[in-house]
Amino acid sequence: MTENPTPPRRGRPPAFDRDEALTAATRLFWERGYEATSVADLTAAMGIRPGSLYAAFGDKKSLFEEVVRHYGRTPVGAFAGAALREEASAYAAFARILREAAAIYPDPSHPAGCLVISAATNVSPQDIEVQAHLRDLRNSNLRLFEARLRTARQDGELPPDADPHALAGYFATVVQGMSQQARDGATAADLARTTELALRAWP
Amino acid sequence: MTENPTPPRRGRPPAFDRDEALTAATRLFWERGYEATSVADLTAAMGIRPGSLYAAFGDKKSLFEEVVRHYGRTPVGAFAGAALREEASAYAAFARILREAAAIYPDPSHPAGCLVISAATNVSPQDIEVQAHLRDLRNSNLRLFEARLRTARQDGELPPDADPHALAGYFATVVQGMSQQARDGATAADLARTTELALRAWP
DNA sequence: TTCTTTCTTGAGTGACTACTCAAGAAATGA
DNA sequence: TCATTTCTTGAGTAGTCACTCAAGAAAGAA
């Protein structure tokens, strides 16, 4: 059990940093979406040739799946989960989710909005699985929202007549709308005002 | 001034109904988006050959622009403008906009959501103008929202400290989020609940 | 009927798509 | 040193993309 966790690699070492390449691919997919980003665009941005890309990542679809996982580990992709985990009250969690979305989605240091929300909106039938994959991620997020609100009602934070399913749908709607607004040019100030209005719906 | 409004057309008459063809094209663009819909898909759905399509509509981009205008004259594309024009109070207008969006966006008789919101989300650089065109339409709608709310404040329907710009951004966010939710499978009942929660933000 | 006009048809265009592969280069192990 | 392994390179594949065009067909006008 004294196995080396990183045994010395045989053969020629890769000439590119896998994480840097993934970051470059993420930016492109985030900006343009899955189908509108060509493998030629990707190889140019990642600084590698097609053969290296296919050897390292499989095919375009596999690369995109890895990009989505990579995105989910960045602050932009993980803030909602972190808020649900770290905040003591449901209100604090959802207020934080909306406020952070308002600050992060229009941040000019990366493409606007959320990759999971916008990267596979327009796909041809051959890539329908990619669209379904992101939709599943969004809907599982919706269920996380609902579970947290259900707990809040059990704990008495929400009144007994509050509707966790409806509230979850409402907050998901606002978050997704804010992502779209950010892509349309809304500023952090704009989205901050939207957030405060949206929070008025809290029971 | 007794000119015939529709002078007899010379030459071979078109073998297809222009409006029916446009409706078929609208459905496809609405479902899949601009780039993910190929000219081959369009000719198949419209029941015509490429030559006829190009003769009748110009190129793909021109066809899409005509589709967007056509969409804007359908109930799904015109309900917001109608509500703003027909309702006496701003609250009635925005309540009607959200309630109609909740009923229309998931209606199974047509593709889910709003074409203007979702048909040009993912485009490659060569089609950036198409994306900009729809974004302009969305942003001009946002300004219509804001103008109506500004009037409401002047009329005393809204308190002096209400923020028309912020409210317009909020309602645009909710509408766009509802379109996305409908595409993700939300039902009319789901969106109706979202609507009633969203309206709680009204000052 | 014949001319003119307009539309349809089918076969095509070059450019781009995702993807592949043989050959060579650069590392380790023996 | 030499074999083995892994990665890179550049030239390539078949298929699809938006789009075109000459030839023929179908209408009105003369």
Could you please describe the fold and organization of this structure?
The structure is a homodimer of 203-residue chains. With 203 residues, chain A is an all-alpha fold. The first copy, chain A, folds into two domains: 18-71, Arc Repressor Mutant, subunit A (Orthogonal Bundle); 75-201, Tetracycline Repressor, domain 2, CATH 1.10.357.10. Helix content of chain A is 66%, strand content 0%. In chain A, helix 6 (90-104) runs parallel beside helix 9 and helix 9 runs antiparallel to helix 10. The longest helix of chain A has 27 residues, at 128-154. The radius of gyration of chain A is 20 Å and the shape is elongated. Chains A and B meet through helix 8, helix 9 and helix 10 of A and helix 8, helix 9 and helix 10 of B. Chain A binds a DNA duplex (30 and 30 nucleotides) through helix 3.
Mean pLDDT of chain A: 95
Number of strands of chain A: 0
> Strand-residue fraction of chain A?
under 5%
Low-confidence stretches of chain A: none
| SS summary, helix count of chain A | 10
Q: Secondary-structure element sequence of chain A?
A: HHHHHHHHHH
Number of domains of chain A: 2
CATH homology superfamily of the largest domain in chain A: Tetracycline Repressor, domain 2
Q: In the CATH scheme, what's the topology name of the largest domain in chain A? A: Tetracycline Repressor, domain 2
Question: What does the overall shape of chain A look like?
Answer: elongated
Biggest interface, residues from each chain: A-B, 47 and 47 residues
Radius of gyration of chain A: 20 Å
Q: What would CATH call the class of the largest domain in chain A?
A: Mainly Alpha
What is the share of helical residues of chain A? Answer: 55-70%
CATH architecture call of the largest domain in chain A: Orthogonal Bundle
- Class inferred from helices and paired strands of chain A: mainly alpha
Query: What is the end-to-end distance of chain A?
Result: 55 Å
Oligomer: homodimer
